[in-house]
Structure formats: C-alpha cells, structure tokens
Amino acid sequence: MALTLETIVGSDLCHGCGACAASLEAGRLRMELDGSGNRRPVRTAPLRDDEQRVVATVCSGATLEHESRTAPYHPLWGPLVAVRTGYATDDALRYAGSSGGVISALALHLVTSGQASFVLHVAADETDPFGNAARPSRDRDDVMAAAGSRYSPSSPLASIATYLDAGDRFAVVAKPCDIAALRRMAKRDPRVDRQVTHMIAFMCAGLPSRQASVEVVRAMGADPGAVRRFAYRGQGWPGFARAILADGSEKRMDYATSWGTILNRHLQFRCKICPDGTGEFADVVCADAWYGKDGYPDFAERDGRSLVLSRTAKGEALLGAALGAGDIGLEDLDVGEIEKMQPYQATRKRQVLARLAALAALRRPIPRYRGLHLVEVARGAGLEALARNFVGMLRRAGKAPRVKDVEAVR
Ligand SMILES: Cc1cc2nc3c(=O)[nH]c(=O)nc-3n(C[C@H](O)[C@H](O)[C@H](O)COP(=O)(O)OP(=O)(O)OC[C@H]3O[C@@H](n4cnc5c(N)ncnc54)[C@H](O)[C@@H]3O)c2cc1C
Question: Counting C-beta atoms within 10 Å of the first and last residue's C-beta, which end of the chain has fewer, N or C?
C-alpha cells in the first residue's frame, strides 16, 4: 500500500524537497524547519485521500524507480551516455564554484543561449546565513551568487508551481533526490516535461541539518548569532567554510574538517538509505573529480575540476553546446576512474540493501526502489560489510519509534 504523508515524514523517509507542497493546491502544505533542523512539509489540515495519492506519486523519499532506460545502465553509476572531467572556462565562475564550476557554467550557458529563460536553483537565504532559498537566475551575477555547495536544508521544488503556472521555460539544478522527485512530478503534470528544459544535479553524500552549520561556527570559535553570511565551499577547490561576522571579520575552516568531522555527522536519516547519491534521474550530473593520494581523495587546494556525467541525449547535447560555445572545457575519463574519485558513493550504494533489510526486519516503512540494481551491487560489498550495516541499522533504528507522531514533532 502507498505510504501516506504522515508515514513518510514520521518514519524519516522525507528528504524535504518540497515536491508534495508544489503538487497540492497552494497553501495545503508548507515547508518548514522541524525541531531537528530539517525541512519538512507541515499540513494546514488533514489531507484527503486524493491528496495522499498525489503525495505518494511525487515523493522520491518513498519511491525511486527507473521506468525507462535513457542510456546504458552501469550498476554503480546509473545511466551513462558519457563520462568526463571538466571545468568552467570563465575563471571567476570556476573559482566561485564548488568543484570546477561546471554546473554554474551550464546554468549560464542555458540562459545566455536562450534555451531557458532562467535556471531555478538554490542560493543563500538573504534573511538567514545558514538557510537556503530557491530562486531564478537570469544572468551571470545571479548564477555567480548561487555558485558553491550549501550543506544545509533546501526545498528547491517547493516554489516550482509558480513558474509552471506562469508558463516559463526553465532549467532546474538540485540534489539527486530533488531531481528524482521532479521526474516523478512529470508523471502527473505534463507541464514539467514541456517547460523544464534540463535537469542538472550534483552528487550528494547526504544533507546535513541546520544544526550542523551552527556546530561548524561554534567550532570556528564564533558565536552563531553573530554570523551575517556563511559559505560552505567555493573560492577555490575545495575551498573553505567561511563565516562573515557582524564586526566584518571572517572565520574559516578547511573542507576536510568542516565536512569530514562536523557536517557529515548531522545527515538526515533518509540519506543513509539513499541509493541515488549520484543523480541517476538527471540529464547531467557533476561532482568533485578529486585527485587521489594513497587510493583515497586528497583535499589539497587546486584549480577546480568537476566530474561530469551525461545521462541522457539531452544532457549530452547540452554539454556539446556549452563546449562548442567555449563555456566549459571537457576531457574524457574512463568509467573505472569514478570510484577513485567518489568512493563513498560506491560504498553507500553497495550497502543500502543491508540497511533496508534491517528496517524491514524491524517492520519499519521502507522506500520502494526499482531498477537501481541494488542486489547486483550488494554482491560487491562483501558479507562482513553487509552484516555490519545490517546490525548497525538494527541498533540505530531499533531505538526510534516505528513512525513518529507528526503532530507531536512539530
Ligand atoms: C548536500 C551536498 C552534498 C554533496 N555531496 C557531494 C558528494 O557526495 N560528492 C561530490 O563530489 N560532491 C558533493 N557535493 C558538492 C558538489 O560537489 C558540487 O556541488 C559539484 O561538484 C558541483 O560543483 P560545481 O563547481 O559544478 O557546482 P557550482 O558551480 O558550485 O554550482 C553548485 C550548484 O549547486 C546548487 N546547490 C548548492 N547547494 C544546494 C543545496 N543544498 N540544495 C540544492 N542545490 C544546491 C547551487 O544552486 C548551484 O547551482 C555536495 C553538495 C551538497 C550541497
């Protein structure tokens, strides 16, 4: 039976994209920060059965399903048309971007070439240094202002109905789960396929709660209340987390410390059972094309370089056009190199099945995953790792209520 909004949110399967809020009549659901610092839908009144069916259709927290093949499917890395590394040829964009600035360069290419009127994506919320706001970028200044990863909650789809209603043609940049939800929205709203020109994602190891940003600032030795602006990456690769304080001073923390010791310890639960950290439903996906040291990515500062995967013919055409216009540089990469750059993504996909099995053993609601080759990739994890993940999830999830009372956690 399809999961209800209350079960999805109460069992922590929600990742906060806002597709449900965008798919119901305006005002029925609002996206708000919950007590643990994650964005979640809040009802204004109990949902009717037909509204619950809409939620179940669009929610990628509850269902991920490849319904048709867009390209040959690699069990670990999903549909692949081409695998490359790349960078933005605009040096300022490359410097501002998280890795090689390719996402920003593609966003700018889409608006300057007229393929899209704007790109809908996330930038820092002007009223909250740790918050994010989804907004349209129409020129280079807009794109530049939104460049860089923001490791804090975002709901990029919550406002998308406004742009669909207005008849705009636009591209969307977002996390893998957001893009998967947008594909699901297209199943019931034909305007998505007509009006969303391109779907671009970045690889995602999980979304930290708002509290994680506060912890980073405390670890920098600053008062979170004194922060006026906060950036997590960018201005170099990987760049520094930077807090600009009320007195104009700046505190910094390197990426290995901010992500590796604080942010990644505050990931929302759904990310721990995510088999799609690599954006399998996007047209193009970018990630860090880390250089390796001793078989593991090293985070030394360098000129930015992105891993660039095209997953559909449309995505490949966009890369070709941006390359032809001189907006990006690209170099072919062997598919075998991806795991050296993104070992965590390979490991998590291999382990997801064991974690789901533990949830099922506890009779917890679990997402429905179809066509992601989870059984095949689990064979590569090794029995010991699978057992460790099974037991770890049993212990962790066993302590939580089966489904939290959604009203009680508001
Ligand atoms: C939560 C999170 C997890 C990540 N996990 C990984 C990972 O596992 N592996 C990896 O290689 N890289 C990860 N990244 C970073 C990602 O590497 C880079 O964004 C990617 O390499 C693209 O770099 P770029 O220079 O092309 O992007 P840029 O040109 O810097 O553009 C970044 C784009 O991402 C959008 N964006 C930033 N933060 C958010 C957000 N919270 N929600 C929605 N959209 C956002 C911006 O609007 C912008 O359009 C993560 C980023 C985030 C925010």
Answer: N
* Domain membership flag for residue 130: yes
Alpha-carbon distance 4 to 91, whole Å? Answer: 47
- C-beta separation of 96 from 107 below 8 A: no
85 three-class SS = strand
* Tokens 């933005």, residue located: 88
CATH code: domain of residue 126: 3.40.640
Q: How confident is the model at residue 295 (pLDDT cuts 50, 70, 90)?
A: low
Say how far residue 184 (Cα) sits from the centre of its chain: 16
How many domains does the chain contain in total? 1
Buried b (16+ CB within 10 A) or exposed e, 85-104: bbbbbbeebbbbbbbbbbbb
In DSSP notation, 247-295 reads TS-EEEEEHHHIIIIIGGGSB-HHHHT-S-TT-TTSSEEEEE-PPEETT
Are 199 and 183 contacting, i.e. CB atoms less than 8 angstroms apart? yes
Instruction: Let me know if residue 226 belongs to a domain.
Output: no
Tell me which residue range forms the domain holding 141. 73-208+266-343
Cis-peptide into 238, omega within 30 deg: yes
- CA 282 to ligand 1 centroid distance, Å: 14
Which atom from ligand 1 is nearest to the alpha carbon of 152? 41
Q: In sequence order, what are the residues at sequence separation of 6 or more whose Cβ sits closer than 8 angstroms to the Cβ of residue 224?
A: 130, 213, 214, 217, 218
Distance 150 CA to ligand 1 centre (A): 7
Distance 47 CA to ligand 1 centre (A): 33
pLDDT digits (tens, 9 = 90+) for 304-320: 999 999 999 999 999 99
Quick one: which H or E segment has residue 19? helix 19-23
* β-sheet bridge partners, residue 30: 42
pLDDT tens digits, one per residue of 157-200:
999 999 999 999 999 999 999 999 999 999 999 999 999 999 99
Would you tell me how many other CB atoms lie within 10 Å of the CB of residue 372?
20
Q: Please state the φ and ψ torsions of residue 63, each to the nearest 5 degrees.
A: -140, 130
Is residue 94 domain-resident? yes
Ligand 1 pocket by C-beta < 6 Å: which residues? 97-104, 121-123, 132, 146-151, 154, 156, 173-175, 202-205, 207, 277, 286-288, 304, 306, 342, 345
Residue 219 lies in a domain: no
Non-local CB neighbours of 46 within 8 Å, separated by 6+ positions: none
Structure tokens at 210: 């708002």
